């Protein structure tokens, strides 16, 4: 299972910041297949050189969350880096995730070419993964894409994957934390 954490964050906001059980999510994505590992890709939030209390709290909460995920059985968090990309028209800083997509794509390719997996489920909306998906499929791996319809992935991504699963209210309710 390969989870683009930034994409999932946006999806969960659409569901009023639903708090989900990541073990349940991984098992739903596994679709009754043996689960080798779940990878979660994200960045820690920006923290300035002289951070405000809000920045410190946000950073600390994200670290705790990543640590909790890493403590789940067969879960691995892969952390990217945030890069400053300037200011928008309103003077708000723009940050961009770096390395996250490359790590996700590399893991899909590595697991496929080493024949560690026969199926891969991905939560993302990013068509940058098409080359990795094509390599995995050429190695015989079936790819399932989980996505939210309001954040519809690029048509090329929807066309390329083997199975498409919409993230909807029913799915979110089935994986909410107790």
How would you characterize this protein structure?
42% of the residues lie in helices and 23% in strands. By secondary structure, it is α/β, with parallel strands linked by helices. The protein has a single domain, classed as Rossmann fold. Helix 4 packs parallel to helix 5.
Characteristic terms for this protein:
single chain, 178 residues, alpha/beta, Rossmann fold, six-stranded parallel beta sheet, 7 helices, 23% strand, globular
Strand content: 15-25%
- Which descriptor suits the 3D outline? globular
- Give the uncertain stretches in residue-range form: none
CATH H level, superfamily name: 5'-nuclease
Task: Spell out the blueprint of helices and strands.
Elements (H helix, E strand, L loop, with lengths): L1 E3 H10 L7 H9 L7 E5 L10 H19 L3 E5 L1 E7 L5 E6 L1 H14 L5 E5 L6 H9 L3 E6 L7 H6 L2 E4 L2 H7 L3
Parallel strand pairs: 1-2, 1-6, 2-3, 6-7, 7-8
Antiparallel strand pairs: 4-5
Helix pairs in contact: 4-5
Short structural summary:
The protein has 178 residues and is an alpha/beta fold.
